[in-house]
Amino acid sequence: MQGGVHRPLVGETITLVEAKAGQTISSDMAASLEQIAKLFAGTKKTVAPVVIYGGPETQTRNGITYLAWHEIQNHLWTREVEG
Question: Rounded to two decimals, what is the model's pTM?
Answer without folding.
Answer: 0.77
